[in-house]
Design a protein that fits this description.
InterPro entries: PPP2R3C. By secondary structure, the chain is mainly α. Helices cover about 55% and strands about 10% of the residues. It has a domain of about 80 residues: Recoverin, domain 1 (Orthogonal Bundle). A hairpin with a 2-residue loop joins strand 1 and strand 2. The chain is elongated, with a radius of gyration of 29 Å.
Length: about 150
């Protein structure tokens, strides 16, 4: 049996070993930590002018790229025209409806920016209780306006 001092020494040795591994002094055998991407970067201080400029420029480029993905007025009008042209009868009151087959046809004709909206998942999300399995053209168009 170990006496009390030996137990304390062993405990301190283990503590130091694990502390150094966790602290980064001695690298552990587990390499999965190296695969985790860094997700937090501190904001640059006021005196780090170059880093501030880099942050501003990268933000501007990001916003430009996102704005190019948005549908402009002409593209929205074209989308509305195509949806209206491919509506599936009968109408429900004043509301025009479209089935999945025509929905996919419009998706092919609408252009590359609109392609992201013509998925089965979005159709199913907007499908409610229509007995013919259709969605409202107006609801879909409003969805595109909100998300795009």
């Amino acid at each position: 049996r170990k006496n009390e001092q030996e137990l304390k020494d062993e405990e301190m040795e283990l503590f130091t070993k694990y502390y150094m591994e966790w602290k980064g002094g001695k690298k552990s055998d587990n390499t999965s930590y190296a695969n985790i991407p860094r997700f937090y970067y501190r904001l640059p201080a006021e005196d780090e002018i170059l880093l501030q400029k880099l942050r501003e420029e990268s933000r501007a480029v990001f916003l430009q790229r996102k704005s190019r993905e948005l549908l402009d007025n002409e593209e929205l009008q074209n989308l509305w025209f195509l949806l209206d042209k491919h509506q599936t009868s009968p109408m429900i009151g004043e509301e025009a409806m479209i089935n999945y087959e025509n929905f996919l046809k419009v998706g092919e004709k609408a252009g590359p920016k609109c392609k992201q909206f013509f998925t089965a998942k979005i159709f199913a999300k907007l499908l409610h209780s229509d007995p013919y399995g259709r969605i409202s053209i107006m609801q879909f168009f409003n969805y595109v306006m909100r998300k795009g």
